[in-house]
Amino acid sequence: MTAGIDISDLSTTVRPQDDLYRYANGPWLERTEIPADKAIYGAFHALLDTAEKNVRGIVEQTAADRHPEGTEARKIGDLYTSFMDEDTIERLGAGPIADQLELVASIKDLGGLVAALGALELQGVPGIFYYGVDIDAKKSDEYIVYMTQGGLSLPDESYYREDNFADVRTAYVAHLARMLDLAGLADATAAADRILALETRLAGGHWDRVRNRDVSATYNKVDRAGLEALTPGVDWSVWLTNAGVPESAFEQLVVRQPDYLTAAAEVLREVELEHWREWLSWRVVRNAAPLMSGAFVDENFSFYGKTLTGAPELRERWKRGVDVVENALGEAVGQLYVGEHFPPIAKARMVELVANLVEAYRQRIDALDWMGPETRQQALDKLGAFTPKIGYPDKWKDYSGLDVQADDLVGNVRRSVAVETARDLAKLGQPIDRTEWLMTPQTVNAYYNPRMNEIVFPAAILQPPFFDLEADDAVNYGAIGAVIGHEIGHGFDDQGSKYDGAGNLNDWWTDADRAAFEERTARLVAQYNALESTDAPGNKVNGELTLGENIGDLGGLSIGYVAYELSLDGGESPAPVDGLTAAQRFFLAWALGWSTKAREAEAIRRLAIDPHSPPEFRCNAVVRNIDAFHTAFGVSEDDDMWLSPKDRVKIW
């Protein structure tokens, strides 16, 4: 290993000029088997495994130490213990959901159904919509409730209508019957057919994922009277009371898909009550299945694991237990994780990298030939208002209100939902908490939050292959530098660019500049629409669904290269290392971060619902548009990676 690139693991049969992805990852792809408990595996997932093992060590040690009652450490230990206590869980069988199933069985009319939907929502059983508190996209100094479509148990509305998912629907009905039978519900086979029919009606009102990406179309503010007009027959006071939501929370809210709510209300009124009881019983069973006895866990995995993703084996129990702890007490675990696994020097280095990426964006925006001065100044103002968050929050969540019992797994999870719901609702009417993080420090990921105009990099992603304190700058800029650039780029993608520097939906573009921008993004859509997944032959990328992430990748890598050049501070590029120039190491670092293999079912699922392109295209399709890549590897018209300069898309 030299300077972060292991040249002995590069392909000797594939040229980078023909396929950068397989030049960098070919030997890895040939020798690597996807672990039996995974549907997809690669460099990113290996880092996830490392973080998961580190968290396991923390959680198991915390459980063994038996900290004082009421402390966060004790809650971590007791929650994990409650999940690992298989004897108690097996003895209880379906007992933990008996009260919820009784509630459903007691529904006598539409009002009772609405009341039950609210009560179960508070216990973590999702109904026909989702709701939550977020920053108002047009008043970014206020919180507001957002409501979005729901009610489906398959991954996406397309699974209910497209022919290529017919086999999945057949398997789903069989799964429904088995799960309902396990829970002791009558007429399970016929009920399964009726549940699919009900969900298919709900799916018919859903917006598809491309339409849902439109942040303007999905911003529809209504008052309480407007909500009631959208949903005739729904007694919202009943739902609010049972869901533990104050009436004041729904004085104004943003409905993301108004016509879905109208369609769902129609289904509520028209579908027989008995069919709704069957569906809601199913939702209860599905929600608790991973927490109950082995028969429920195995059947749940058989469909949601094997059928939908292709993974042949259930994840080990300790891994699932760690997930439960992280979902309920994520920042309590994160505080311990940071103390053990995030050196201060890593944060200091990231601060420097972020500063160089922001300066690189500033220079590129200044030099754009397609953007006029008015829009340019607004873009620079927005860039100047970016807030980076690195490693971990300055203020940690308080879990003092969460009651955890070492012998009550399902109860613990329910109480966690109630605590987080109360935490969410308490934001209404309060100043924006700009210290809040939407990911835990041990999460291997990063994000851009347009309503706070912030870029966030949890500690766990700041490790090889994305960030290596021992690697040279070319490698780090090609890896974590491009990730930083990607997240900044989301502020200027097709949807993020609709927000101004204060986090408000605000059209700061001139018509001419927006048209020039959309001409470029349309060309990018066309490029990706032509790409066919090698993990799922015959299935193509949806260029519109993936547009935002593709813009992020293209901008991130392009700007990452500019930032690397800035880091040289006018000096000469370093000498080649092991025959690789600095520019080549930069692009290889990007390629190595995307080494991935996926099972066919999972590849198909992701093509349907994931706004990210398949990893091989996050490598190859991006670099073909970048002049510096062609120069670095001497790509010519005779090479497969060649893209004519006139066809290269340059946005930022």
TrEMBL record:
UniProt-listed SUPFAM superfamilies: Metalloproteases ('zincins'), catalytic domain
InterPro entries linked to this entry: MetalloPept_cat_dom_sf (IPR024079), Peptidase_M13 (IPR000718), Peptidase_M13_C (IPR018497), Peptidase_M13_dom_2 (IPR042089), Peptidase_M13_N (IPR008753)
Keyword Zinc appears in the UniProt entry: yes
Start and end residues of each Peptidase M13 C-terminal domain: 445-649
Boundaries of every Peptidase M13 N-terminal domain copy: 16-393
Membrane-spanning intervals of the chain: none
Assigned keywords, A-Z: Hydrolase, Metal-binding, Metalloprotease, Protease, Zinc
Cofactor: Zn(2+)
Keyword Cell division belongs to the record: no
Coiled-coil region(s): none
Protein family membership: Belongs to the peptidase M13 family.
Name of the featured protein: Endopeptidase
UniProt source species: Kribbella orskensis
